[in-house]
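Hey, quick one: can you model this chain's 3D structure?
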Amino acid sequence: MGCTYASSVQPVVAVERTVFYRERAAGMYSALPYAVGQADKFFWYLFFLSFTMLYFTYYGMMTVGLTPNYNIAAIVSSAFYGIWNLFAGFVIPRPRMAVWWRWYYWACPVSWTVYGLVTSQFGDVHERLDSGETVVEFLEDFFGFRHDFLGVVAVMVVGFAALFAFQFAVAIKALNFQRR
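Sure thing. Here's the predicted structure for all 180 residues.
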């Protein structure tokens, strides 16, 4: 996974470095603000990726804790994976979901991850698309994503990790599936 990340970032940074050299020569800014600005997006990306892996790990642990064996836990998990994928807001964006299903969008942990990843990386881009609208306008109109909601999204992703960890701890303490 690390090799994939390193390989995928190289062409992007190579292009951005050329732009940076031009803007530095024009006296727009120095190297430190540029590096910090790039690191900001990277840390948001790293945050959402890490906590998503964490809540999926805790979710797997929780399903094993709540069910009598691994086979049932795998069946329950796979059912939720399909539902989460459907309601993540990527296949069907929230504004296009039927009103009576939108509550599940907000209850779906993957929707918060998609919201956080997309908004943290593209939510402050004001460049125009071929359609004439900016990236920010597209994200708000099509997906319903707002960059100023990023803090709430981060709290929710951490909350899902904590919720699944807590449910696992309670299940291990309270439920006993041993037969004697």
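One thing worth noting: The chain has one domain: 40-174.
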